[in-house]
Amino acid sequence: MEQGNQPAASGTAEVHRLFEQKGGASVGLGLKYKDNRHIFDERGETVPYLEFPLLRDSGIVNHGFSTRLGGVSEGCFSSMNLSFDRGDRPEAVQENFRRIGKAIGVECGDMVLSQQTHTTNVRLVTEKDRGKGIARERDYTDVDGLITDVPGICLVTSFADCVPLYFVDPVKKGIGLSHSGWRGTVGRIGQKTIEKMQQCFGSDPSDILAAVGPSVCMDCYEVSEDVILRFREAFDKRVWGDLFYEKSGGKYQLNLWKANEIIFREAGILPEHMAVTNLCTHCNSSILYSHRAQGNRRGNLCAFLALKKD
Ligand SMILES: [Zn+2]
Fold this sequence. Notes:
This protein is of the alpha+beta class and 310 residues long.
């Protein structure tokens, strides 16, 4: 998310202090959802995370989405920063990964991290990749989507307003996880991830469970006309009214959640197999990192998805 920086959200330290004092997530995180749909469960105690009931109920995955709470990082990284590339202490980030991994039920040595540059490249992750990006160096670049069918390997992608996409095929036992900012969304990385699962695992889209994770909502996402021109090219005119509207001064509000839902539907995902976020990172920037709220002085959230070991 590159455009526009607003002042840092106030009250972050207060939220984090209350969380510690009250003894963790068991009292609720105080997240503000956009509607009453039950898309997420808030899980974890001292290290909270968000979970999709849709994916959990498949019974074959461990997964989650982190918050800012429960880590050891300080200052603008407070406290669960999961990026080694933003100036935080590496030991703190490593400890954060260990903590969130323990909460979700995955180990750092089994994680495989993306190398995100707003592409639509999707990598097939195999046994040889185990630990890359955290326990050892990555030997790949420009990877915004990951798929695997290896039990135990945990796919990891990172976020601070951009859109996380989760895919679980309970029939062929394959999974996918992608990073879809506006460029990835225009390039349909969601569709490309599904197609890669079809090629590599023989997945049928009508079997795949697909979820859109916490990210910036339409109300919080102003873009300029050059972005909208790309969406006009990429999407049928009949859905433009659902995707964006024009304000004064050549500015628009853009709905990345709806765009990814349309991409899912057009790729053959069934409505009853979809969960689309009602949780905005920017509306909740004291609990979730938001690029548009914090600018570059922030940490990263991560999405985690692993097939359970047999
Ligand atoms: Zn919002």
